[in-house]
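Hi F.,

I've been meaning to write this up properly since the lab meeting, where we talked about keeping a consistent format for the predictions we share between groups. The idea is simple: the sequence comes first, exactly as it goes in, then the structure tokens exactly as they come out, then a line or two of notes. No screenshots and no reformatting. I'm using this chain as the first example so we have something concrete to point to.
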Amino acid sequence: MLHTRRPRIGLIGMGHFVYWPQFEGLREKLMTKQADVAACFSDAVDVVDLGFADDVDTSLAALKRALREDLDALFIVMATYVTSQVVFPFARYLRVPQILIALQPLDRLDYAKTTTRMQLENDDVCSLPEFAGVYARLGAPKPFFLVAAASQKETIAARIGVYERAVTALAAFKYAKFGYLGHTYDGMYDMNTDPTAFAAAFGAHVQMLEMCELAEYVHGAPDDAVRARIAEIRGIFDIRAPSADPLTDFVHDEDLALAARCSVGLDRLVETHGLTALAYFYKGEHGNDYEQIASNLIIGNSLLTSRGIPLAGEADLKTAAALLVMNRIGGGGSFAELHPFDVCDDVVLIGHDGPHNLNVSNEKPVLRKLKRFHGKPGAGVSVEFKLKTGPVTLLSCTVGGDGRFALVSAAGESVPGAIPATGNTNTKCRFSVSCTQFIERWCEAGPTHHLALGVGDRREEIRLFACMAGIRLNEVL
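Output, unedited:
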């Protein structure tokens, strides 16, 4: 039920037609470089082989196919020196990120024995400056570059992996629909988002949804589907008794049944509208039906987030975008904000009351019943865990005074240790500066108060995504 496009990556080799009659078999040998690059991509993307272009006519033919294939990026393999007429059609007409790859076969030439043919076989970088200049003269977006010796296989695979993940995040927004259910948490000025501006920045449609539709799906959830979801929940979570927090309570069978029914209904809402992501919040009154449903979505939205359909609470549309980016670049991504800091251990607690990505939990996630959600109406079952120990990345999406969207990122480390048993996620994060300095620097960057917290150091993928998407990036650490 994942509503996502598989990224479509174009791959083309380029050479110089003048060489072929001069050096027999050279063209065929150079074309093998393309296959070596193709082997570096994962099974998560569709690679479209556009063939080999060596003059403007073969390039134009390949371009026409590329336009039909709905590509998300183009990888150009520089097989030898290439005149820039060959790249002109792609620079001028194909508006997707383009990565120029020059993988020299030899670590170095044997200078005493080098022939002209041997030099041509290793001339992968010769036309890179010419190509770069032509993109600039045409006013095209700057291309990206990957230069290495063919023997540096691990470096090549890692670099292509980073590009692939950045393209995957970019592709996730193409033709996407972000659901918007309810309204933002009132009074949070940083949360308000113009759907048209969002569509312009990210290329995704914002679908307005109503609580009455969700309520219909929740109340109409088939009993067998609810029973199956209860069994799934019991298998995934560690259901805990009340903690020292007086807001916690026992999780009763009827609590799980309600959460499961809301989860099934939420799945149908996502399926009906073909949503890629969802931002939601509803402030009910006096325990009404909508309030009860909205208060019991945390398990359902955590399950969806863990399946690659991120949800953001408090109707934070911007953070839904950050969560989608974090998910597609491999960081998982949980909805979070800054919690209290600890100067004794020099850490900042980072977490929230949901939604969460269960795939990044350090251990079996916990369920706790909360008699009240602080700052929100209603009661229900909540999810509690901490992220896996090791490198983590923070990503926030914000809007500046000029109305333009921007990303704010930082890298830190998730460290082991106890967390509050309050039914929220909480991760102890340590940074390269003191915990208080980090908070100051993070806030100086002007983020929104929510963020996507993901595992691994994902800064390079975020840099590439921001550049490819044309969105400003402020790196804090």
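Notes:
The two ends are 36 Å apart (CA to CA).
The chain is about 35% helix and 25% strand.

If this format works for you, I'll send the rest the same way.

G.
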